[in-house]
Design brief:
This protein is of the alpha/beta class and 409 residues long. It folds into three domains: 81 residues, DNA polymerase, domain 1, CATH 1.10.150; 181 residues, Rossmann fold, CATH 3.40.50; 88 residues, Winged helix-like DNA-binding domain superfamily/Winged helix DNA-binding domain (Arc Repressor Mutant, subunit A, Orthogonal Bundle). The strands form two sheets. The chain has a nine-stranded mixed beta sheet with strand order 1-2-6-5-4-3-7-8-9, sandwiched between helices. Helix 7 links the parallel strand 3 and strand 4. Helix 7 runs antiparallel to helix 14, helix 10 packs across helix 11 and helix 16 packs parallel to helix 19. About 12% of the residues have low confidence. InterPro entries: DprA, DprA_WH, DrpA_SLOG, WH-like_DNA-bd_sf. Belongs to the DprA/Smf family. This is DNA-processing protein DprA.
Length: 409
């Protein structure tokens, strides 16, 4: 999804308003509704602004920027020029539509990676930073399955459940989005530098915080509000009674999103938050299919694909699945469509694309470009056929984006 980036003057006005101390996003949205673009807001007299959004907002708008503002603007423009980086403003057609349903959408979004993932159907998976091995396994399994059904997995890049959710999301066509509580130029926690780099290359990282903003405890409830805003539903995997995940669930409920929780042992401390949410009306779920069904998302995996999704999939598979563009993603998702009752779930001999691709594949590593040349297949069809063959166990994806026939003992 490509849009014309804001000019320096336009971005300066957006940045000034986004940094104005005391100017709340809801008040800014009122002013934008009344006057249009930020340049027009900044040109209004204080009494006119006050009539629309109140005295405090008017004073915040017209307060002169600090001495560091020009340097901040230069840093933002330089960051935007780096590969994969984008800044989306509230008036941009590329602004995530789900966030526009919030009462206080951020005026500026800093995005690293695939912007189109912010326009897909999405589910959040969140939970404890001190997750149990079972919680980690459940989060990754749910995320892998949802992503295989072309649902984008959203989480907060924290330790524990969040990181497992991102890793599972990277293993399917739905991909993953990390919403962070720092500036987009920083990674927190530091242990997740490699994961953040993989997400920025194959998924998307989203921040509303100015560049250079460090991790502060007060930032994370606001980050949780963005996680809730982006998705159709939130799944709580493990949570203590006092947990940031429960804040995300409460915010999601207030925004009209669905809330789900995985049950656990009555003796497990990290089950208590989930049980509390269930008592308060969250939907108890035991399988990712229940999440898809409750949200009205088409259940796409066939039986073979479903079984494959439950197996641990090497992280290199993200290179195939997440590199798909919008058209290729739709084609690849067709690999999961329920077959007609009279058809077997998967038979390569009956599929001309997969048969042609198998003939072109050797038992030595082959690149995507060579396969495209040998088969003369379009990108979307090639990606979809490769995905079907991977799920059937006929193709192995190697590091570096190379493919070869699987060896069957």
């Amino acid at each position: 999804m490509q849009t014309l980036p804001a000019t320096r003057i336009e971005l300066a006005a957006w940045l000034r308003l986004s940094l104005a101390p005391g100017l709340k996003p809801a008040a800014l949205r009122m002013l934008l509704g009344a006057f249009g673009l930020p340049e027009a807001i900044l040109a209004q007299p204080q009494d006119v602004l006050a009539d629309v959004a109140g005295e405090a907002a008017a004073r915040a708008v017209l307060a002169p920027p600090g001495p560091a503002f020009d340097g901040q603007l230069d840093a933002v423009l330089a960051w935007r020029e780096l590969p994969g980086n984008q800044i989306v403003t509230l008036d941009d057609p590329a602004y995530p539509p789900a966030l526009l349903t919030m009462p206080d959408p951020p005026p500026l979004l800093y995005i690293k990676g695939r912007l189109e993932l912010l326009h897909t159907r999405a589910v959040a998976l969140v939970g404890s930073r001190s997750a149990t091995p079972q919680g980690i396994e459940d989060a990754r399994r749910f995320a892998r399955y949802l992503s295989a059904a072309a649902v984008t997995v959203v989480s907060g890049l924290a330790l524990g459940i969040d990181s497992a959710a991102h890793r599972g999301g990277l293993e399917g066509v739905g991909g993953t989005v990390a919403v962070i509580g720092t500036g987009a130029d920083l990674v927190y926690p530091a242990a997740h530098h490699a994961l953040a780099r993989q997400i920025s290359e194959q998924g998307a990282i989203l921040s509303e915080w100015p560049l250079g903003t460090p991790a502060r405890a007060a930032n994370f409830p606001q980050r949780n509000r963005l996680i809730a805003g982006l998705v159709s539903g939130v799944v709580i995997v493990e949570a203590a009674m006092r947990s940031g995940s429960l804040i995300t669930a409460r915010l999601a409920n207030e925004m009209g999103r669905e809330v789900f929780a995985l049950p656990g042992s009555i003796h497990a401390p990290l089950s208590r938050g989930c049980h509390r949410m269930i008592k308060q009306g969250a939907r108890l779920v035991e399988t990712p299919d229940e999440v898809l069904e409750e949200l009205g998302f088409t259940r796409r995996p066939v039986s073979n694909a479903g079984r494959a999704a439950k197996r641990a999939v090497p992280s290199e598979h993200a290179g195939l699945c997440i590199s798909l563009g919008a058209q290729a993603s739709q084609a690849a998702t067709a690999a999961f469509a329920d077959p007609a009752p009279s058809e077997p779930a998967f038979q390569p001999a009956l599929a001309s694309d997969t048969e042609r691709l198998l003939a072109a594949l050797g038992h030595s590593p082959t690149t995507l470009e060579i396969l495209a040349t040998r088969t003369e297949m379009q990108d979307a069809a090639l990606h979809a056929a490769l995905l079907r063959l991977e799920l059937a166990g006929e193709v192995t994806l190697l590091p570096g984006g190379r493919f070869m026939r699987a060896h069957h003992d």
